[in-house]
Amino acid sequence: MKAVNDWLTRVLVVTVVMGALSFSAPGTSAASSTSEYTAYPEVGAVEFVLKQRLMWNYADGQFHGDQQISQAQFVSSLVAVLGVTETEPVPQIPDGHWAKTVYERAQKAGILNGVEINPNKLLNKEETALLVFNAWRPYRGEKNQGFTNTGALITWGWMQPAPQGQPKFREDLPVTRADAALILRYLWQDKLNLELGEKYALEFHKSLKVENGYLIGTVPKGDGLLRLRATFHSKENKYLNFGNGEYFKLKIEGLNNMAFTATNQLDSTNAVAYHYIKFPSLERTNFTRLFSRK
User: Fold this and answer.
1) What is the CB neighbour count within 10 angstroms for residue 195?
2) Using N-to-C axis directions, what is the helix angle for 100-109 and 71-82, rounded to 10°?
């Protein structure tokens, strides 16, 4: 737990425009007083989502993490994580409803695809997982078709399995607000990882040049959140690795291919992966990990 909290502390000081938006349901408050959530196993996640304004306390200052989360609450949080600003009409939500703008932004982002719109509906695992996969399709692609939404999200590691003694992928179990906090922290971290990974991949790519038969470049120094690596496979079947901040100059005729990768230092989550396989061309192919590759 200490490692997770230390990592999150570093995350919060990184200067990245996340674009998180705030939506508060009637009777809620972003302010955090002494709350009952300190007793939850997910206390770190709850503190994180409150600080990032991805979820909110109720007017009594309590998080009520053991309550089942509503569709409107979870949709609001997903919109905040994604930073959606454009809208598309959702006629099912009447004018004056506190979540109308939230749903219109979610509709534009594709979060509501295949979802029966009912703001007051209390979500189970399958309904929650569908919303997650809808929101994350632009980032990680389609879910593994061999699983239900619940099974795929549990397999990916963003949803907790059913309690011991029950079928692991039970779809009908309720999702509490504390459960949702844990999922939302994973999403926020993944979005940050992907954005930083792309930033450093582009920085690396721009550093590359072929000069007098040599491939020259520099692996970005990074910020300590991601492990950055350029890996070369030589025609002698050897591998050469260069990490954060390292410069290289290699004879290009002796190289088969190269990969640039960025992984989270804490849990080795894949943030970005590009392959260069057409030397001396510096054309690259994106192999960043998806939920499911066809």
Assistant:
1) 17
2) 60
Residues 92-121: tens digit of each pLDDT:
999 999 999 999 999 999 999 999 999 999
Three-state SS at 213? coil
Amino acid at 57: N
Q: Which residue has the tokens 């929101």?
A: 135
- The 8-class DSSP code of residue 275 comes to E
Element (H, E) at 195: helix 177-207
In this structure, the dihedral spanned by the alpha carbons of residues 287, 199, 243 and 289, taken in order and rounded to 10 degrees, is -20
- Quote the tokens at residue 83: 């930073």
What is the three-class DSSP state of 278?
Answer: coil
Dist. CA 71–CA 116, nearest whole Å: 10
Q: Would you state the pLDDT for residue 27? A: 55
Cα–Cα–Cα angle for 165, 171, 173, nearest 5°? 65
Q: Measure Cα distances from 272 to 143, 186, 232, 267 in Å.
A: 18, 16, 16, 14
**Per the structure block, which two tokens stand in for 93?**
């939500």
Question: Which pTM value belongs to this model?
Answer: 0.86
The span from the CA of 120 to the CA of 72, in Å, is 7
Crossing angle of the two packed helices 177-207 and 71-82, in degrees rounded to 10: 20
Token duo for residue 77: 């949080």
